[in-house]
Structure formats: C-alpha cells, structure tokens
Design goal:
- There is one protein chain.
- This protein is mainly β.
- It is about 0% helix and about 50% strand.
- It has strands spanning about 5, 10-15, 20-25, 35-40, 45-50, 60, 70-75, 80-85, 90-100, 105, 115-120.
Length: about 120
C-alpha cells in the first residue's frame, strides 16, 4: 500500500503563498499521474490539480488556474503544489493522491492531509 504524507500547510494572509509537499512511499510513484485535492469544512472533497507521470502535462480546477502550480520530482517520490495569491476560500485540508483518470483519485484511502488557512 502506498503511503501519502502531506506537509507544508499553515496560516497565511490573503494574497500570500504556500508550497505543499506530498511524499509517497513505494517504487511505483513514477508510474502514476498524481494530484491534489482539498476539503473545506462542511464540503465534499474536490479536485484541485493533477500532473502526468513524466510531469510534462498538468491540469487544474478552474478556481485555481493561474494561481496554483503542481510539479513533481520522481527521484524524490514527491509532488508539490505551489499556491500563490491565496484567497480565504482556499481554506481547506489539502490531500494528495494518485489520479485514476481525469479528476478521480486512484487510491480509496487518504493521508492525514495538511491544513491551509487563509485569513482575510
């Protein structure tokens, strides 16, 4: 079972930036597209961004386009999410997961996530 460990969250003012990291165990990391998801209080978990296996192609939810950038380092089994121009509505717990296709998570389990709180 692949383990996913997210980090890098915190409290930031609106307009600020954060960089999230997700370290994945296992030798199959580079075999899958990876993605970020988030869950705000009282809401369902939603797709944020994804990156192909080689890192050559990325795609984003409309609400983060132009503000967030996903990247990966297959040598380190790590995927990143650079978040700029943060807004209070970006407040959520952020999770990473593999991507089964489109915006669907690959694994049916999740890590502990990392809390992002954006103050106005």
């Amino acid at each position: 079972q692949v383990q996913l460990v997210e980090s890098g969250g915190g409290l930031v003012q609106a307009g600020g930036s954060l960089r999230l990291s997700c370290a994945a165990s296992g030798r199959t990391f580079s075999s899958y597209a990876m993605g970020w998801f988030r869950q705000a209080p009282g809401k369902e978990r939603e797709f944020v961004a994804a990156i192909r296996r080689s890192g050559g192609s990325t795609y984003y939810a409309d609400f983060v386009k132009g503000r967030f950038t996903i990247s990966r380092d297959n040598a380190k089994n790590t995927v990143y999410l650079q978040m700029n121009s943060l807004k209070p509505e970006d407040t959520a717990v952020y999770y990473c997961n593999g991507i089964a296709g489109g915006d669907k998570p690959l694994y049916d389990y999740w890590g502990q996530g990392t809390q992002v709180t954006v103050s106005s």
